[in-house]
Amino acid sequence: MPTPPSAFRELTDPIPHPVVQAPMAGGASCPELAAAVGEAGGLGFLAAGYKTPQAMAEEIGRLRRLTDRPFGVNLFLPQPATADAAAVDAYRAHLAGEAARYGVEPGGTEGPGDDAWEEKLAILLADPVPLVSFTFGCPSRQVLERFAAAGTRTMVTATSVAEARAAQEAGADAVCLQGIEAGGHRGTHQDDPSAGTCGGTGLLTLLAQVREAVRLPIVASGGLMRGGQIAAVLAAGATAAQLGTAFLVTPESGAHPLHKRAMTDPAFDRTELTRAFSGRPARGLVNRFIREHGPYAPAAYPQVHRLTAGLRKAAAGAGDPQAMALWAGQGHRLARELAAGDLVEVLVAELDAAREALA
Fold it and tell me: How far apart are CA 152 and CA 150, in angstroms?
């Protein structure tokens, strides 16, 4: 395996364990979770997606007060204005029954698709953090060079060989490689409506392909719940493993209690990729909302996200997980209700045991 570029190695050398807590937008990846993972020897992450620039800055401040360990912040790339307005309006009409059920109106769909990109960049460049990762695209070389000049390492989420190559060509320090098993949104650089929601490559196959195509260090992500799986991706050439669903049920996670309980509830026995909640393919526990509305949801992000936001909030307030976005990876039934620091320790013990068995 090629030696990782020094910039990324400088970040990871102080981190004892190859365990990265995934940035889960929507509240799960809060400062308390990131701090607990960092204190246990892993790498914690904050998710800036959907947050205002001020809220992002406040969370960074809270995290710094909780720990002096390295951490990362994840940003969403600006999205092109390609949504079909007629399709969005049709989906709004389709959701009329949900609006009546919960006594709320579907949300407005107008607004920028950049997730306050420039404002968040300005904050992170003025007050640098150790690592910034990117989802839904690859920043320009100029943006990555500005972060490098500020002393911040960069990582780009990729779901294919072509996307990993784009990250390398742009000058990223590492790639977060996301297999089809991963929970939450697919981090594709472009959302192709003609591709549907069924395409994608499993993590181990994708990892082998990308290892032969790029020289960057790879953080592997997708369905990882046990230390033995971490050992497998490290043996296949990854530098570290990123886990989201495994940390979602920890007490430090900011996920809704209904979401946490659903992870191991026998009523939710499988996951599926759907556009139902956001307009972009995302993997979640199959509930009534996905079954009834998934087939009709257009490829329109973030318009559909805005459209369903009030419905999802009302469902949570009513204690009804059947209309909540219960993002989860394929390994969700393996979730363990441990404190985040304890979970890191268990994962590392399992990793060591797997390595000894292989040796």
Answer: 6
Q: Residues 207, 233: contact at Cβ < 8 Å?
A: yes
pLDDT of residue 9: 75
Q: Phi and psi at residue 114, in whole multiples of 5°?
A: -100, 0
Tens-place pLDDT, residues 190-228: 998 876 666 789 999 999 999 999 999 999 999 999 999
Residues 6+ apart with CB under 8 A from 261: 321
What stretches of the chain show up as alpha helix (H) in DSSP? 6-12, 31-39, 53-66, 85-94, 96-102, 117-126, 141-149, 161-170, 203-211, 227-235, 245-248, 257-262, 288-293, 303-317, 340-358
Peptide bond before 302: cis, by omega within 30 degrees of 0? yes
Joined together, the tokens standing for residue 5 give 């570029």
Number of Cβ within a 10 Å radius of residue 228: 16
CA-wise closest residue to 207 among 173, 235, 182, 184: 235
CA proximity to 243, closest of 261, 217, 257, 222:
222
CA dist 190 and 84 (Å) reads 16
Residue 224 to residue 242: CA distance in whole angstroms: 8
Amino acid identity, position 270: R
Low-confidence ranges of the chain (pLDDT < 50): 1-3
The amino acid present at 314, given as its one-letter code, is: A
Q: Return left, alpha or beta for 264; rule: phi > 0 is left, psi -120 to 50 is alpha, else beta.
A: alpha
> Hey, what are 87's tokens?
């399709």
Contact 4, 239 (CB under 8 A): yes
Could you tell me the two tokens for 142? 């100029």
Q: From edge to edge, which strands make up the β-sheet containing 240-243?
A: 19-21, 240-243, 218-221, 174-178, 153-158, 131-135, 71-76, 44-47
Report the C-alpha gap between 48 and 66 in whole angstroms: 18
What tens digit of pLDDT does each residue of 100-151 get?
999 999 989 888 889 999 999 999 999 999 999 999 999 999 999 999 999 9
**CA-based radius of gyration for the chain:** 19
Structure tokens at 351: 């990793």
For residue 291, the SS3 value is helix
Q: How open is the CA angle 136-302-269, to the nearest 5 degrees?
A: 80
As given in the structure block, the two tokens for residue 236 are 């296949």
